[in-house]
């Protein structure tokens, strides 16, 4: 009797409002709707719904509308809904006319407005007996209000046993025996057993239970047992399937490992268990804790040189002058062992190769150096006699004024490419014509239907093609080169003279004999005129 006394004292001394009792309730799996026939303004109705964790009802679908119809039961009057106007005036063109749900959103798949024009002021919405929505001033009283309560899960109604009756009571004050679902916190009174059950969420499951452990009579909801319920000598008892055991409440079934003291892994063993540890650990003397194993003291040793033990494992390192290569310690190369062609530089952990002037590092082998001919012409590398000279790949030797040079070979003149060719320094690139794709570095083939997804348009090789060095050309004597040049110039002069002479004979001035440049008929007439003049 302490709680009712405190409640009455609060009402008398502090003016606590009495919690209203709903006149009707409809509960689904996750939602409950209740009607309260208590006149008052919108603010008072909203506060009454929030007192038990709910809010004024949102009607977003025909399902909610059907629930309202069942709650009203053809009774007249207007009830507050959870819609209020946050803007100065209504907007009839919009679905909710500018109103907003008390949950702070405007999402809905349903509306049922009574005819009205544009209104302004502090407006809220009430539903009438015809289920239509009407705008009303929020400070004006309505005949009651509709509350909505949302829950993550619910308990099903209990099946009636022979000679028993059930009465339910929800957390928001609704009472009766015809609920289809009950929210968490609801109670069920079973007569004449004198049994009181509570809908509670435990271990992620919402079900009927009670503070006292153990089963109640098996004829009522299987005694609350998750497994089987049996009565021996009139005492109900729950039993669990193999591999599980009764939980602390004596009704639910849990794994034998539930609450086990194992530090890392628990393995069920019938109705018992045993603990296990991960690799790198061993089970402690207490049979539940796990202790780290020092892998660095194992025989044979796990590391070639230096071992560092870690929690649950180990790490291997190498001595100075060695480096880890695929799990093994290998000597670090230096300039005394490094294969650099030209210049070797000691760096931390190894060495670095570089090249002398006019040389660059070979991209295929960073320890080698190759000649650098950036502009297509550079000095050749010759021995002391000057007889044997070398050039980079793709270049050929040429002698000028007694000096041997390296000159780039134009590989495109050798017709290596089947279609189009681009010469590069020391190499060349082949390109395929539209409608063709490369077969190899030099050849192309027509695009087949299988190639359409991979190729389109002009195609070319992606990388420069290594040059094919043609046979080394023999050096021409400078006198021969001069003779060839003079012969070419003479031929050009002769051709120009012949062309000039022919042009003069072709088109002579009018004072000359005109028939040489006329048609056959004109030639005949000219000859006749000459003959006549001779006769005279």
Automatic annotation (TrEMBL):
PROSITE patterns named among the record's database cross-references: ASX_HYDROXYL (PS00010), C_TYPE_LECTIN_2 (PS50041), EGF_2 (PS01186), EGF_3 (PS50026), EGF_CA (PS01187)
Membrane topology designation: Single-pass type I membrane protein
Gene3D superfamilies in the record: Laminin, Mannose-Binding Protein A, subunit A
Residue spans crossing the bilayer: 480-503
Domain C-type lectin: residue ranges: 28-140
UniProt entry tagged with the keyword Phosphoprotein: yes
Coiled-coil blocks: none
Taxonomic superkingdom: Eukaryota
GO-annotated molecular function: calcium ion binding; carbohydrate binding; transmembrane signaling receptor activity
Subcellular location: Membrane
One GO CC annotation: membrane
Keywords: Disulfide bond, EGF-like domain, Glycoprotein, Lectin, Membrane, Phosphoprotein, Proteoglycan, Repeat, Signal, Transmembrane, Transmembrane helix
Cleaved signal peptide residues: none
Domain EGF-like: 408-445
PANTHER family on file: CHONDROLECTIN VARIANT CHODLFDELTAE, THROMBOMODULIN
Function: Endothelial cell receptor that plays a critical role in regulating several physiological processes including hemostasis, coagulation, fibrinolysis, inflammation, and angiogenesis. Acts as a cofactor for thrombin activation of protein C/PROC on the surface of vascular endothelial cells leading to initiation of the activated protein C anticoagulant pathway. Also accelerates the activation of the plasma carboxypeptidase B2/CPB2, which catalyzes removal of C-terminal basic amino acids from its substrates including kinins or anaphylatoxins leading to fibrinolysis inhibition.
Assembly and binders: Interacts with ITGAL, ITGAM and ITGB2. Interacts with thrombin/F2; this interaction switches the specificity of thrombin from a procoagulant to an anticoagulant and antifibrinolytic protease. Interacts with ANGP1 and ANGP2; these interactions significantly inhibit the generation of activated PC and TAFIa/CPB2 by the thrombin/thrombomodulin complex. Interacts with PF4; this interaction enhances generation of activated protein C. Interacts with HMGB1; this interaction inhibits HMGB1 inflammatory activity.
Name the record gives this protein: Thrombomodulin
The organism of origin for this protein: Pavo cristatus
